[in-house]
Amino acid sequence: MLKFYIETVGCQMNVLDSELAHSSLVQSGLVPTTNRNNADVILFNTCSVRQHAEDKIYSALGRLKHWKVTKPYGVLGVIGCMAQKEQKIIFQRAPHVDLVLGPGQLELLSETVHQLLDEKLQQNRVDREVDQKMESGKKLLVSLKRQEHRHAEVVGSFRLFDPVRNPEARYNRFQAMVRIMFGCDKFCTYCIVPSVRGPEQSRPPQEIIDEIQTLVRQGVVEITLIGQTVNSYRYKTGGKTTLLSDLLYQVSKIEGLQRICFVTNYPRGMDDDLLYAVRDLPKVAKHLHVPAQSGSDAVLRRMKRNYSASEYRELVSRIYATIPNVSMTCDFIVGFCGETDEEFLQTVELVQDCRFKNSFIFKYSERRGTKSAELYADDVQESVKKIRNNILLEIQDKISLEQNQQFIGKTVEILVEGTTKQFETGDVQLSGRTSCDRIVVFDAPDNRLIGQFLKLNIYDAAPFTLFAKQPADS
Ligand code: 5AD
Ligand code: SF4
Hints:
There is one protein chain. The chain is α/β, with parallel strands linked by helices. It folds into 4 domains: 3-151, Methylthiotransferase, N-terminal domain (Rossmann fold), CATH 3.40.50; 172-285, Transcription Regulator spoIIAA (2-Layer Sandwich); 288-405, Transcription Regulator spoIIAA; 411-469, CATH 2.40.50. Helices cover 39% and strands 23% of the residues. It has 16 helices and 21 strands. The strands form 6 sheets. Strands 2-1-3-4-5-6 form a 6-stranded parallel β-sheet, with helices on both faces. Helix 14 (341-354) links the parallel strand 15 and strand 16. Helix 10 (244-252) runs parallel beside helix 11. It is globular, with a radius of gyration of 24 Å. The two termini are 47 Å apart. Iron/sulfur cluster binds at residues 184, 186-188, 191, 193-194, 228-229, 266.
């Protein structure tokens, strides 16, 4: 029984891709393991959005050299965005890697892994026979042979890959992600995604509905529709166009499904039909993630985001005015090329005004192959990026706390997701999320409530957490 292990970093696309890769490897007869050292196949599903993520993968690959010595037939693979972006560079920097496969070719994964395993097992047998005859030359022989192994390199065109969903491959049985579109056409100047994930392609609505129905039959109650710019979803057939709002109406009709989330939105194209669907459909989560990236028009122009700060503010006002009790979250990049103190202060003002539930703040990381790397100097010092990052985080934390404090004394409904603590008494702390994506924790005697919707009373709040108790009558 050959075992595989997948390590995932990056966004929800990668989490889903790893689930699908897991399912297809299981289908092909391999067995999953949670112990990396025991595995015969180790795959890294990688992210290229920031340099830091790539550096971490290279050092993890470096640490696995010894694993290849103990398991010469083992397959070490790099999949995901970094595989697409780096391609041959991975083989140059980590020659012990056997397989590099981009996100558009995942359907070839199990076939390629098996091919490599077969070849290497065969090769290993030959190595061993020769070794027995050449008592002293073993190490050299093995390493030379290994260099000759055929590297599998599958990068290039994009093919859709959403096969049968296997509940064993998911982080839990009651939540799942469903891809509704691939790729991105926006080409923000700092972003590597369009060149590694290819052009925007929306999946046919019926295929999406069928997949969700399968998931619901497997016990899923919450789905997250995912796409790089999910609100650009648009599928045309026979003179009829289905938009994200139409899809939400269709998905809402699926019996047994209780909550529908969707990420990530692009600020342009957040039209009223979508906001009305979020407002009017009880199953649709009252939470919108709409990255602004900056509050400065000049920076937004250099980023080629195609909207101004005031247009973004208008959007936020429209969202709050249309959808009662909605929460918003945001992404920002600080220290983008040429960002002055004044430009940064405009972002500070935007964060202060928009009252996000929380914000994800990133220091600009230059990516080879992007327009900003070609056009502008990465001229904001790392120390300045760090300070700006901390300033924004501090402001946002204060807002997050103020917002969460408004829940004290209120009753909320959550989907219980998992355990966060185990007490010595045997009790556990469980955690879940509200429809507006707030994390709620509470104590319970056991894990039995996981996967259920539950009403709770909030008695305390921190910036990222609400503390709750079960009502006395429950
Ligand atoms: N540097 C820093 N952050 C980036 N993001 C995308 N590209 C970069 C980059 N080159 C951030 C954006 C995006 C989030 C997923 O990652 O804020 O919304
Ligand atoms: Fe990257 Fe911009 Fe596309 Fe988002 S919208 S994936 S930031 S290019």
